[in-house]
Amino acid sequence: MKNWLLHIIVNAVAIIAVGALLNSVNIEGVGGALLAAFILSILNAIVRPILVVLTLPITILSLGLFLFVINAITLSLTDLLLGSTFEINGFGMTILAAIIISLINLVLNSLIKDMKN
């Protein structure tokens, strides 16, 4: 439970950073980012594994790069569920936002792992 909450906070920080970097990403404050991170974590736990299995041949052919598209799909679903609280304009921007969120998550999670050790 503690790791899950930490993951949501890290996702919220990444979403806020993407909102600051990209003009096409609109977030209504920290509460909106936390809500988006919460919904995104639920979608990553339920929908993402199904999409990964269904698109396995494409993912293998693209050497794993199609996983960014899957991340963008879950981010788009988060956008659809939250409406005006969290908006991303265009699927291309959604893919770019998914890549940036993945990179920020990678960096922050490695920093947290180093701090625990």
Name the descriptors.
117 residues, mainly alpha, two-stranded antiparallel sheet, globular
Walk me through the topology.
Elements lengths: L1 H20 L3 E3 L1 H26 L1 H6 L4 H17 L3 E3 L2 H26 L1
Antiparallel strand pairs: 1-2
Shape: globular
What is the radius of gyration computed over CA atoms, rounded to a whole number of angstroms?
A: 14 Å
- Provide the helix percentage: over 70%
Helical element count?
Answer: 5
> What is the CA–CA distance across the termini?
19 Å
SS-based class? mainly alpha
**What's the number of extended β-strand segments?**
2
Summarize the helix and strand pattern as letters: HEHHHEH
Widest sheet, order of strands: 1-2
Uncertain segments are: none
Oligomerization: single chain
- Work out the strand percent: 5-15%
Give structural notes.
The protein contains 5 helices and 2 strands. The protein has a two-stranded antiparallel sheet with strand order 1-2. With 117 residues, it is mostly helical. It is globular. The two termini are 19 Å apart. The longest helix has 26 residues, at 29-54. Helix content is 81%, strand content 5%.
